[in-house]
Amino acid sequence: MNALAQLGMVSELPSNIQMSSAPSSSDEDRKDYFVERDGMKFAGTHLLVDLWDARNLDDPEKIDRTLCEAAVTAGATILHSHFHHFTPNGGVSGVVVLAESHISIHTWPERNFAAVDIFMCGACDPHLAIPVMQRLFQADRVVVDEQRRGRVA
Question: Site feature Cleavage (non-hydrolytic): at which residues (predicted)?
């Protein structure tokens, strides 16, 4: 957190995007953002996406724009994004923080590989983010592992 504070990226006040001016409500009045699909109730869908033989892995600005577009395409609300460019290999690590969770990426240009983590709750569909990312990264092989997080028994 100190590193973000030094960059001026941490507010002393919480974001008001999820705050309401209405008085606090009882637990019965609160909206449940868990998802119900295929007879299962869960917090959200978590995709681990491996992009092999990928391109354009060393430009943090392009990656930022693409992951933000992917988030919006999936139906998510962007709160903040931050990306870091490593030297000498040119890899990029970054995150798009969403009201519905996050998209993060770590790239290895020297290996033509990127690891992407997409977690979204509510009505978002993280699968819709993959074709948007594929336009930039042009991966020859995309491996997706899906987990349903917070499954209710």
Answer: 100-101
Active site residues: 101, 106, 121
Kindly state whether residue 1 falls inside one of the protein's structural domains: no
8 Å CB contact between 22 and 129: no
In this structure, is residue 114 part of a structural domain? yes
Q: Give the pTM.
A: 0.80
pLDDT tens digits for range 31-43: 778 888 889 999 9
Contacts of 18 (CB under 8 A, 6+ apart): 99
For the chain, how many structural domains are there in total?
Answer: 1
Question: Is the sign of the CA dihedral 87, 61, 47, 120 positive or negative?
Answer: positive
Cβ burial 30-45 (10 Å sphere, 16+ → b, else e): eeeeebeeeeeebbbb
Parent domain of 93 = 48-152
Residue 132 lies in a domain: yes
Query: What would the pLDDT profile of 24-82 be if each residue is shown by its tens digit?
Result: 556 667 777 888 888 999 999 999 999 999 999 999 999 999 999 999 999 999 999 99
What are residue 55's phi and psi, to 5 degrees? -125, 175
